[in-house]
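1st attempt posting a full record on here, be nice pls
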Amino acid sequence: MTNRNYIFTSESVSEGHPDKVCDRISDAVLDAFLEEEPEARVACETFATTNRVVIGGEVGLSDQSKLSEFMSGVDQIARDCVKDIGYEQEKFHHETIEVTNLLHQQSAHIAQGVDASGNKEEGAGDQGIMFGYATCETPDLMPAPIQYSHAILRRLAQVRKNGEEPALGPDAKSQLSVRYEGGKPVGVSSIVLSTQHLDENMTSNDVRALVEPYILETLPEGWVDAKTKWHVNPTGKFVIGGPDGDAGLTGRKIIVDTYGGAAPHGGGAFSGKDPTKVDRSAAYAARYLAKNIVAAELAEKCTIQLSYAIGISQPLSIYVDTFGTGNVAGEAIEAAIAATIDLSPRGIREHLKLNKPIYQRTAAYGHFGRSPDDDGGFSWEKTDLVDVLISAI
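the predicted structure (as tokens):
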């Protein structure tokens, strides 16, 4: 699809979407453990439905005797997440939801394959394939459809939470169909937005009148014209939202979390997993490498695949595809990557400084295409590897 005319569509969901509520809680639990101990092990899953949140999975601290005491705070972590998202519905309220904590100690059999001991290096937490992607079509080197779908919902969340638009509810979905000419994004053929609203008397037209100015200010100038089709709350009222309207689970929005379908996905979800799990850390490393390759102008578009086996330290393979846009051969980039960065689980964690409580903020609006934070959040979005990669080729 490099040099042709086409339409490509991606969707995003808000922080109040039922699955994103669960991602947020799982990542908040992870952050709490990493705050306690940077090498804590966490694989946390959350389920949410009417008046209920269930949290389960495996966790581990170096001093396991602290575990039961530490986990007593999980109930409040979940409530704080629901409160910050903004749910105060009759059947899903941060004060009245029932929280069930089923977290337990990490399996010793998994730990023995992952932990370093004696002369054995720390291994990957699981087998699997991870992908990273970057493209020059937006300033953040992300695909335009997913990046602007996220941006619309972030803007609506901002005006909802700061009190400018109190009629909006936390649950929302967006979808953009972006028109490409010669492989470059030039406009939007259709906009789909479904957002929860707190006023039962609001019609679809009322909701469109409320959200349209924010959508127009978010999209590039000239991308919306008279031919653009709008579908705002197309089914009518959307008053009951969140887990009261539809159950949620951690890890069900992996395409929303990554590239909106514009690039492959290895299949593993991110939220609730500590960075020894290569599902998360290696996907971040692959994005970091792909973004630096495009930022270095070695290619206009780049996909990177990494593969791992449980208990094995180094990746089994590194694959690069520049879709015919590369200024150097893919094999040369693969060799440069191998010579530039240690892609073992520990090497990735140390290079990107991932053993920090920086994950709750990733749970909504995408793990990629975000600005690096001063405290180390979104470190995989830095382009500090450009000169090193160029020198290695």
